[in-house]
Write a structure and sequence with these properties.
Layout (H helix, E strand, L loop, with lengths): L1 H4 L4 H16 L4 H8 L3 H8 L8 H11 L3 H14 L10 E2 L14 E5 L7 E4 L7 H14 L4 E6 L6 H8 L1 H4 L4 E3 L6 H8 L7 E5 L3 H4 L5 H13 L6 E7 L1 H8 L11 H7 L3 E3 L6 H12 L3 H10 L5 H5 L2 H9 L3 H15 L6 E2 H7 L6 H5 L5 H10 L9 E4 L11 H7 L6 E4 L1 H10 L7 H10 L3 H13 L3 H13 L3 H13 L3 H13 L3 H13 L3 H13 L4 H12 L3 H13 L3 H13 L3 H13 L4 H12 L3 H11 L6 H12 L3 H13 L4 H12 L3 H10 L7 H12 L3 H13 L5 H11 L3 H11 L6 H11 L3 H13 L4 H12 L3 H14 L7 H5 L31
Parallel strand pairs: 4-7, 4-8, 5-6, 6-7
Antiparallel strand pairs: 1-5, 2-3, 9-11, 10-11
Length: about 900
């Protein structure tokens, strides 16, 4: 019996023998099998181990499908094995909702409450009474659906400390009385815990994915988690379940953004999972919510009463309750050394370093954040005092910078990820408060970290993703030597992004063997993108068999893009049959983009029925892009009815491109009456650009009031472009007052370029004084306009004022104005003045990477074409920190 319980009965022995045979026949290792099956590596290892219990039915089914083995036969063996072992039903992960404390689920406490009556006298934390808002009503409906037996996913999207997690906690309370479980994947690593256990989730479970970016945004397994969640939702026998998550808007935008044509698509499954399942949480309480909070405050809620005193005007009640104002106050009034530590932490986070910041890195980075006077006053124990100051909690909730203890995931030693994980930074690590992180992203976005920051990063950071992200950031800020050395260090620690970038540098110099070696190294670390780049290189070199082999290797890892790209190259070379064979192979493996390409080939060949069938097949897999492109093509060919029929099949919230393009085609053909209904339908489905097009049509048709009414309806910041376009049309028509009024509305609602755009129009019309007046008004919103003012003053011969304006721009964190002035001085032959200004720009932080040619004027900056540092002009010669090997 002991042997049976440990997985050695006859049925489980036969089950594992057949799985092992399938693994051998497929020529896969366990890591590859885990990726293909969408399972965790530990799950696969335990399923094949005779020392482990009988694997679950879900695990066996997933492995059988991945190995192309008969699923019913293996499930029969699994049931028999479970009976032989006397297995009991797995209750799945999680525990009853009523056994959870809200703060264990990362609900922010708002202030200290009562003291427990235990001998340890641990402190509990109080929450204010809850104020329901509009988004809560939508969330409550989702919870009701789950309680009624329908699985649901809802991800709340909002900025830091807006009450997202608390909303989820309040919403699930009715499920507690119905016996539901709640599972928070957290140990030992969020993403790995989710991937390992999602297949064991049982019906009537709330899956709690607070800070969902730690799951879906994981570079290694995020897409696998998205696929597992999707499978959980569409498997009736596993429901009902409720998945709740939270995201900041920048993460939501990143995960849902459509890829560039023929570009990589790193979040395809995540985008599909989130489509129609996000719920926006506003930053501020509206008037009804504030009134409801006031009633609760009058009823004795002290926390709400105190918060309303401070936050009634702007409505940012949850941020106040979460301690954000005090966090900001602590930052602004910190001791210089403590503030320098926070600034280094803010810069690290906004430039891509992970949550856990090594103390050695922060301490070493501080040097150049301090002025000389503050630096001279540092004592031997300055670091100890600074970290102690920053560890003091705010309102009992959180500290500006708190000590954290990240767990090291334990993975099999043979996997590529194991080597990467082994190189973790030693010593204490710290985490920056969320609100201060967001404050730094906004208020320090134009600043370049000093040399001590890059030196500390190169010396102390070891995570490959951190090093690669900082290499990219250094490159963008023209710290090219640091970028080179950080990229080399990232590659040494296994960063696939750094290896790919170095491979590109080798390829540019003609070193194809070196480039291929680096791409293969990146592929060995799990990068399928490197495989498709390698496949393209083989195809370009005429090695068609080699290209197909590499593309197939990528497909075996679950990425069909390499097959698609090789097929495109063959089609462009005239080999339609070869291209179609590869596309069909990719489509059979789930590549939706291949279905689109096949549809386009069929359409081009005159097989409209075949094209439409393939496009519909892609749509059935959740990708309507092919139908949309067919619709546009038919509209351009004059097939109005056929185009509109296809476009309406694609129409859905967030997918309005075909409708918009057809409206454009009709407008260009002079059919305004036919274009307007299509634009209105696109607007009803959430299209922001359709607002602008329709407003322009009204303006051109001589209906300025109707155009402006549309602009007034477009109140979201992303829609202020409507006002900008209308203003441009008014300006050209001679209505300068009307144009200025519209652009001021756009600027008031967040369109930072509006006044600058009007100034450009005034300058082009010869009204230099009017242009300059508008630029001076726009400067507080948009620091780029300083450079325009500098240029205008310089052209007018007022060099003193130009230099003063350039210095003002630098003081606001934008070195571009100094750069522009330096370029003009150099062009005028004043090389010494130009070099002085360039040094000033470098010290402030050059933030416009796309202007590198102009930035360096090709005579002071840069790397040689092979990616190695030139004997540099060092912009920080007065500082002790220089890149490795610098003279």
């Amino acid at each position: 019996m002991d042997e049976e319980r440990t997985g050695r009965g006859p049925a489980v022995t036969e089950l594992r023998r057949r799985l092992a045979d399938g693994l051998a026949q497929g020529r896969l290792n366990q890591q590859q099998l885990a990726q293909r099956a969408g399972l965790g590596r530990t799950t696969v290892s335990e399923a094949l181990s005779f020392r482990k219990p009988v694997p679950s039915a879900e695990t066996v089914a997933a492995l059988a499908r991945a190995l192309r083995l008969p699923v019913p036969d293996l499930l029969g063996l699994q049931r028999t094995a479970a009976q032989e072992a006397g297995a009991v039903a797995d209750d799945g992960p999680g525990r009853p909702i009523g056994q959870w404390e809200p703060h264990d689920l990362e609900v922010h406490p708002a202030g200290p409450g009562t003291t427990a009556a235990r001998s340890e006298a641990s402190v509990e934390w109080a929450l204010p009474r809850y104020v329901s808002r509009a988004h809560d009503r939508v969330l409550v409906e989702a919870v009701r659906d789950a309680g009624a037996g329908r699985s649901r996913i809802v991800v709340l999207v909002g900025t830091s400390s807006t009450g997202k997690t608390r909303s989820c906690w309040e919403a699930v309370q009715p499920l507690a009385g119905q016996g539901w479980q709640l599972w928070h994947p957290f140990h030992p690593d969020r993403a790995q815990a989710a991937l390992e256990q999602l297949h064991h989730v049982r019906p009537r479970t709330v899956v709690w994915l607070n800070e969902t970016q730690h799951y879906l945004g994981d570079r290694m397994v995020g897409e696998q988690i998205a696929a597992a969640l999707h499978h959980l939702m569409v498997s009736p026998e596993r429901g009902p379940v409720l998945v709740l998550g939270t995201l900041w808007p920048e993460y939501a935008a990143q995960y849902t953004a459509l890829p560039a044509p023929d570009g990589a698509d790193p979040h395809s499954r995540t985008r599909e999972l989130l489509a129609g399942r996000t719920l926006v949480v506003p930053d501020a309480f509206d008037a009804p919510a504030l009134a409801a909070a006031a009633v609760l405050a009058e009823g004795g809620d002290r926390l709400l009463a105190d918060a309303l005193i401070r936050a009634r005007t702007d409505g940012r009640l949850t941020q106040d309750l979460a301690g954000a104002p005090e966090l900001l106050n602590r930052f602004e009034h910190a001791h210089p050394s403590a503030r320098a530590v926070l600034e280094a932490a803010m810069d690290a986070r906004r430039l891509g370093v992970g949550l856990h910041l090594p103390q050695a890195f922060l301490t070493d980075a501080v040097t150049d954040y301090l002025g000389q006077s503050d630096y001279d006053q540092l004592t031997d124990d300055w670091a100890e005092r600074a970290y102690a100051e920053l560890a003091q909690p705010v309102h009992g909730k959180q500290a500006p910078l708190r000590r954290t203890n990240p767990r090291t995931p334990r993975r099999p030693p043979a996997t590529p990820a194991a080597g990467i994980v082994a190189a973790q930074a030693a010593g204490p690590q710290f985490r920056l408060a969320d609100y201060l992180e967001q404050h730094g992203r906004t208020n320090r976005r134009h600043l370049c970290p000093p040399a001590s920051f890059w030196h500390a990063a190169h010396t102390h950071l070891t995570r490959p993703d951190d090093l690669h992200q900082l290499a990219v950031a250094a490159d963008e800020r023209h710290r090219l030597e640091w970028a080179h050395h950080l990229r080399r260090r990232a590659a040494d620690h296994g960063s696939t992004g750094a290896l790919s970038r170095l491979a590109a540098s080798r390829a540019q110099t003609g070193d194809w063997d070196g480039a291929e070696a680096l791409l293969r190294q990146a592929a060995d670390h799990g990068s399928t993108e490197s495989l498709w780049r390698l496949a393209l290189r083989r195809e370009q070199a005429g090695d068609r068999a080699g290209a197909e082999a590499v593309a197939q290797e990528a497909a075996d890892r679950g990425d069909t893009y390499a097959l698609y790209r090789v097929a495109v190259m063959r089609e462009e070379a005239g080999d339609r049959d070869g291209a179609e064979a590869l596309l069909r192979q990719a489509a059979d493996l789930g590549g939706a983009e291949s279905l689109y390409r096949l549809a386009a080939m069929r359409e081009k060949a005159g097989d409209r029925g075949g094209a439409e069938a393939l496009a519909q097949q892609a749509a059935d897999h959740g990708d309507t892009y092919a139908l949309g492109r067919l619709a546009v093509g038919r509209g351009q060919a004059g097939d109005r009815d056929g185009a509109e029929a296809l476009a309406r099949q694609t129409a859905a919230p967030g997918n309005t491109d075909a409708l918009y393009r057809l409206a454009e085609i009709r407008e260009e053909a002079g059919d305004l009456a036919g274009a307007e209904p299509l634009l209105l339908q696109a607007i009803s489905l959430g299209s922001t650009i359709a607002w602008s097009r329709l407003a322009e049509m009204r303006e051109k048709a001589g209906d300025p009031d109707g155009a402006e009414a549309l602009g007034q309806q477009a109140t979201a910041p992303c829609n202020t472009y409507v006002w900008y376009r209308l203003a441009e049309m008014r300006e050209k028509a001679g209505d300068r007052d009307g144009a200025e009024a519209l652009l001021r509305q756009a600027a008031d609602h967040g369109h930072l370029s509006a006044l600058h755009g009007l100034a450009v129009m005034r300058e082009e019309a010869g009204d230099r004084d009017g242009a300059e007046a508008l630029l001076r008004q726009a400067a507080p919103w948009n620091t780029y306009v300083w450079s325009r003012l500098v240029e205008m003053r310089e052209k007018a011969g007022d060099r003193e004022d130009a230099e003063a304006l350039a210095q003002q721009a630098a003081d606001h964190g934008d070195a571009y104005a100094l750069l522009r002035l330096a370029v003009m001085r150099e062009e005028a032959g004043d090389r010494d003045s130009a070099e002085t200004l360039l040094r000033q720009a470098a010290d402030v932080g050059i933030t416009i990477a796309q202007n590198r040619e102009e930035l360096g004027r090709r005579w002071r900056y840069g790397l040689d074409p092979d990616g190695t540092p030139t004997p540099p002009w060092q912009p920080h010669t007065n500082l002790p920190h220089t890149p490795p090997d610098a003279p």
